[in-house]
């Protein structure tokens, strides 16, 4: 859209939107085509960036994805370098999640060591290019004191602020419920539109969140920034994190997986290497019991799916 329809980009800016994000995912032509993306090379991206800048956007993010089967270190590094050359204010890295996709059978060929290696390559290149992020945080910013995410996501991550999701499959969160709009499973727009036309809330699923599940939800989302804000956790739930999760906090501190930094309990570089395992420590008791009683292969798949679902 940014390359071919610049008038839409200008309209977004005129509406008052001041941050824009572009889902590039990869600049490797073969991988982009294999993923079904309309990618015509770097010239298309450069044109899109020109139109975004000409429209007046000064808060511009590019999304990249890693962890694909057979994704070579060299091509991933090239993607990161080519993206930094486009000079967005922010770059966000997303690990490929296979569950529920048409290529989920490829998940078994992607090891944790491989994923960590690709993440490390990107982190080294981004830091060298002037971008910053705390360990475990997936959005890198080259603007001092700017975390790089939208106001909505920043509030959601740091404070656990409730939010209303609009659109196909969108997620909504209240202090006691979590819901998904129609289309979250089917990916079809028609049922969503029909519900709206009939004056109904277009909700597919809604879940009541017991206290320990609500805590797990806030903590899991907090790990988008690689850290838990201790003051906001206490304000939200009326209890200190250290008092609610004494064994878990003691464990991550003793193993050097997390550390206290100002008002945060923050991942260390070592903790970021064990990201999924650290997050799982703060799951609700029922979820922990379920995972413990799975076999190793099932547990690996279940942990990935639950990390994605809880977040």
User: Ends: how far apart?
Assistant: 28 Å
What is the top-level CATH class of the largest domain? Answer: Alpha Beta
- Radius of gyration, Cα only, in angstroms? 20 Å
Beta-strand content estimate: 15-25%
Helix-strand pattern, N to C? Answer: HEHHEHEHEHEEHEHEHHHEEHHHH
- Biggest sheet descriptor: 4 strands, mixed
Number of helices: 15
Strand segment count = 10
CATH topology of the largest domain, by name, is Transcription Regulator spoIIAA
Q: Helix amount, in percent? A: 40-55%
Report low-confidence residues grouped into runs of 5 or more.
302-311
What spatial form do the alpha-carbon principal axes imply? globular
Spatial sequence of strands, sheet with the most strands: 1-2-3-4
Global mean pLDDT: 90
Q: Your description of this structure?
A:
The protein folds into 3 domains: 6-149, Transcription Regulator spoIIAA; 157-208, no CATH class; 212-310, Arc Repressor Mutant, subunit A (Orthogonal Bundle), CATH 1.10.10.920. The protein is an alpha+beta fold and 311 residues long. It has a 4-stranded mixed sheet with strand order 1-2-3-4. A 3-stranded antiparallel sheet has the order 5-6-7, with no helix packed on it. Helices cover 46% and strands 15% of the residues. The model is unreliable at 302-311 (pLDDT under 50). Helix 4 runs parallel beside helix 5 (112-128) and helix 6 (151-159) packs across helix 8.
């Amino acid at each position: 859209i940014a390359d071919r329809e610049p008038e839409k980009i200008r309209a977004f800016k005129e509406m008052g939107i001041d941050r824009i994000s572009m889902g590039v995912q990869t600049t490797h032509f073969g991988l982009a085509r294999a993923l079904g993306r309309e990618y015509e090379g770097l010239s298309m991206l450069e044109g899109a960036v020109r139109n975004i800048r000409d429209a007046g956007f000064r808060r511009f993010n590019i999304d990249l994805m890693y962890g694909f089967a057979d994704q070579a270190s060299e091509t991933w590094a090239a993607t990161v370098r080519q993206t930094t050359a486009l000079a967005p204010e922010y770059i966000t890295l997303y690990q490929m999640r296979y569950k529920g996709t048409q290529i989920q059978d490829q998940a078994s060929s992607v090891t944790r060591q491989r994923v960590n290696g690709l993440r490390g390559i990107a982190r080294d290149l981004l830091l060298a290019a002037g971008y910053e992020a705390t360990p475990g945080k997936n959005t890198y910013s080259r603007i001092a004191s700017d975390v790089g995410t939208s106001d909505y996501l920043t509030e959601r991550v740091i404070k656990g602020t409730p939010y209303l999701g609009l659109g196909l499959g969108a997620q909504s969160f209240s202090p006691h419920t979590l819901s998904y709009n129609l289309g979250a499973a089917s990916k079809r727009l028609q049922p969503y539109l029909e519900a709206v036309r009939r004056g109904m809330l277009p909700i597919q699923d809604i879940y009541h969140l017991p206290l320990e599940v609500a805590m797990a939800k806030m903590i899991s989302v907090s790990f988008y920034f690689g850290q838990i804000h201790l003051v906001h956790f206490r304000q939200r739930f009326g209890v200190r994190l250290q008092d609610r999760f004494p064994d878990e906090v003691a464990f991550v501190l003793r193993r050097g997986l997390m550390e206290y930094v100002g008002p945060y309990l923050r991942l260390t570089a070592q903790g970021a290497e064990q990201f999924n395992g650290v997050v799982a420590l703060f799951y609700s008791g029922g979820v922990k019991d379920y995972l413990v009683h799975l076999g190793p292969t099932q547990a690996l798949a279940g942990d990935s799916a639950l990390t994605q679902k809880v977040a």
